[in-house]
Task: structure prediction
Amino acid sequence: MVDVTPADAVPPAEVGEVELYHPHSWWTKYVFSQDAKVIAVQYSATATAIGLVALVLSWLMRLQLGFPGTFDFITPEAYYQFITMHGMIMVIYLLTALFLGGFGNYLIPLMVGARDMVFPYVNMLSYWIYLLAVLVLVSSFFAPGGPTGAGWTLYPPQAIMSGTPGGQDWGIILMLSSLILFIVGFTMGGLNYVVTVLQGRTRGMTLMRLPLTVWGIFTATVMALLAFPALFVACVMMLLDRVLGTSFFMPAIVEMGAQLQHNGGSPILFQHLFWFFGHPEVYIVALPAFGIVSDLISTHARKNIFGYRMMVWAIIAIGALSFVVWAHHMYVSGMNPYFGFFFATTTLIIAVPTAIKVYNWVLTLWRGDIHLTIPMLFALAFIVTFVNGGLTGLFLGNVVVDVPLSDTMFVVAHFHMVMGVAPILVIFGAIYHWYPKVTGRMLDETLGKFHFWVTFLGAYLIFFPMHYLGLMGVPRRYAELTDMTIMTESAHHLNSFISIMAFVVGFAQMVFLFNLIWSIRHGREAGGNPWRATTLEWQTPQTPPAHGNFGKELPIVYRWAYDYSVPGAKEDFIPQNVPGDFAPSREPA
Amino acid sequence: MAVVLVLVLIVVGSVLFHLLSPWWWTPIASNWDYIDNTIIISFWITGIVFAAVVLFMAYCVFRFRHREGNRAAYEPENKRLESWLMIVTAFGVTALLVPGLFVWSRFVTVPGDATAIEVVAQQWQWSFRLPGKDGKLGTSDTRDVTADNPLGVAPKDPNGQDDVLVQAADLHLPVGKPVKVLLRSIDVLHDFYIPEFRAKMDMIPGSVTYFWFTPTRTGTFQVLCAELCGQGHPLMHGVVVVDTEQDYLAWLGQQQTFAQLSAPQQSGSANQPPGKMMASNPGVAANPKLSRSAQ
Result:
């Protein structure tokens, strides 16, 4: 047994504190605020609002798939616009923005013991540019021709051609512009998160004492800063192809009998750039979820996270490896087939550090004192869905198995389970966990239980059977599943069932939204540390924390974030800023 | 306790669903049963891991749920356990990867006796080209596409004159003969996918991609486009008929060659610069296998 973080001496302060910018008016306090906590709420609210749009879009496409031919207004054009906007919104504007802009802003300064982000003004700009990106995206719904229907991967040439909705109208231009704005805004926020973690930690908060939430968000941000430029470049080039008629991604093409002016470009180049961003993006969403769920499990099982150092190294290993696996999205793209050997190997290697994380979560439960609170329920559901979705990733990552399954509903089921359902379950758990800190009140538990059970079981019933439609060969991105010889009658019934479940799960989210709003005024008073947790955000003098977070004196950190149930200690938790040596029992190894 | 019950039910239900539900792959019609076997291996390994992890969780929740006076153990690390788990996982992953890569090497290695045929996609239909008596496909270029030459076959390439063109109609193939499918698109990305053959590959304008397979039973199979290609994508169906040798030859005899189809236009296109033909054969000339099978 190794003592992971000896409660040793605290280093002296190296630099004095710098006074924060203090708001002078209602506008600078609540609207153009430089307080990371306000920016976090702004990010979260905007992401949730645009996420609701994406939820409604998913209902519309499920109406078409579950009950084909019943809803005349869902033309193929409209269907493709729905899937494109649904995918892009969920991945970029909801998940990325909520995890990094929302949770990152709220939790990083509080958890590392800083008064705010290192560059508060740039942090504020980050949100407003994000909002602008969202507005540009939404404007495409009202533009002539409607939003783009190119699929969220925006593959050229079709993305900018007339056979695709929005290809020769405003849709694709607004989409690309919005992404460029998002990346600009994100970069401003992202630099802040990285610098704050590296430079803004309070005395005694060594890197190996950081809560895993911070490790997850930090690593994801570093990855995003390296990955988003690839998407940025791809967007700029495609915009030039579309607007100025250049040929970065456009070869010689005959469209509907007419020779186009393009020549010599490479559609595959776009795919490499897109997935060089797109695969790290999966982990940009997953790593914050990994970090947060580690802290939820540890806190609510009243037990230290098992194998903390291994967990940190696994996060870093996953982050690094995820930059050399991108072409596993392109096994059947027509790239050189010998790439398959390399990318299948790297992809399956990622399974090892990922599996270690799963083992350590369930081993944290082992000999714990498991409180089945709502955050814990969501954490357990996360493990189930993440393991399920991760394991189907071993099918798709294994190049030859991907050949029949690629571009089928199996892929849709896999990535929804692993990067849709699983991270969103963590988001819900995290909201139930930190809502008391943000508002000072608890969310209603009965509504929470209803929300949990319907969301978890409903989502599993949506996506688990869907794999088998893909195994049957049902392709994804089909606006109509008519005249398909491979599809049996019962497969159509299964689709109807999935659609009904999608509505049920969607309804549960309305209950959740009601709970969020109702509990602001009517929730039970939470107090400063309702979960009796160790990390610094629960040790603030006020709840919700005031501007500057920690009152007069910054906390000094004496221990790691996981001193739960330490033998010999009176309480079953010791906050990070409590001094004193409670030596853990040293069992023989 | 509801949580424990639900976790167990998820495992039992998922396994039963897998075993009993009527939704499964279509009966195979090509030599790629290797791929099906790899999928079966994957189902076994991943299924065991899924059941083990979720059942272990269920046990933990049952055994270590909070009761008055309980206190959790304090155990930051266990190096030996962590190493063992890592080794076991690495073994499992290797057991998936090795057969997978073995089958992949077969998938990318086209047998020498495979006949090259060409599939040409455009929004939103399939056309096909088979080599004529000379056994060679003529070169092609998107720039050669006209109303009279919708596949863009190089008009002056002698190898292309006897190519059999099947435009927007069904393709027939003889059973039991390996085929190398050369894939070409003249507009956007498409993907030639027949679920019963298990194989698929994207088609990219400006390049020629390929895969190979051997049809193993006769029948009529639906071609699906598996890469989003615009609003007509879900209706881009085609048909491939796998025939006995005699039926195939009978069908082949009814098809027309490029020369026959473009006879009136031949003189019109004769004054094209001769250099163009040479420069415009990205796929065929670059493929030594194809010319070998032609001799």
User: Anything to note?
Assistant: Chain B touches chain A through 101 residues (CB under 8 Å). Helices of chain B lie at 2-20, 33-64, 79-108, 245-253, 258-261, 275-279, 288-294. Chain B has two domains: 2-63+79-108, 115-294.
